[in-house]
Amino acid sequence: MSGFALASTYSMPSASHGDVDLSDSSARARTRALNQFLSGIELKAFKIAQAGLRNEDDALDAVQDAMLQLARAYADRPAEEWKPLFYRILENRIRDMQRRRTVRGRVMAWLPFKGEDEDDDLDPIAQAPSDDPSPGHTLEVAEAMKALESALQTLPRRQQQAFMLRTLEGMDVAQTAAAMGCSEGSVKTHYFRALQTLRTQLGSFRT
Amino acid sequence: MNVQDENKHDYSELEDQARTLLTESVTRIDGRIRSRLNQARQAAVAEAGKRRRWFLGSFFLMPTAGAAAAAALVALVLWHHQPQGTFPVSTEGQMSAEDLDLIADGDGLDLMQDADGSFYEWAAAQSEAGVETST
Lengths: 207, 135
Known about the structure:
The complex is a heterodimer.
Chain A: H1 2-10, H2 22-53, H3 56-74, H4 82-110, H5 135-154, H6 157-167, H7 173-180, H8 184-202
Helix pairs in contact in A: 2-3, 2-4, 3-4, 4-7, 5-8, 6-8, 7-8
Chain B: H1 3-27, H2 31-80, H3 88-104, H4 106-134
């Protein structure tokens, strides 16, 4: 009993209600900001990666790698720098994967068998029906989307990248230049050429 | 409307339509992809949190590490600047030990006495001879 009394007398003072560990709370705020940033761009980033890689799983891997790389190397940088940095990392990753795929394609061409995605199971979540109210409109949009995606895939990579970053991600010329690692003039040129090609291929399509 | 304006209008329309379609395609991304992207994001955020904790930990350990390094440096400097050579006490001790040996050695003392005696005898003889020759 006395021991208990002694211990309570000499124990460390507990934190009062107003005490805040600043370093911990700022770290948590930063982590929250990173989470918010990534959740805001992940779907668009996936679309951009998919346009470049033409494969869902590769696109997922590229986005995942870019997220990890950003978190590891640049999480402490100002939040406004994250977007161009992220897309720069993603672009490098896409280019690496394209190169690797080219090499793998050359090797596979010499082999007598092919083992591509034969055991691809159907995912029930992926197969869930859409809650879109108008099937007619859905079909139109799906067709227009298919045409746009096909046209996008014919673009040279830099033009495609400039177009996707400016149109889908809504980045301005300066941000796009930072993400692509080139001058603003180059971004404008790539973007304009992309528009020219798309207009030639698609004409004016209506959604 | 001239050709340039017409082109501009066309491009602007194309941009709008493409933007609408791409945005729509993003909203249609299926659950499997969304789930995997969510997992990837959670992993990345966890990684950032881990690295930040490590950094903060190292930041708080820095003063302790600095103090330890300073103490080690002082110890090293003191150790290297120790006085060199022999202590005077030990030298004196050696000499006194030699003297002690000499004193303890009976023969040595006799020799010394003999040698001193012969010297004095020789000196006395020399002085006597000098007196004789002068007279």
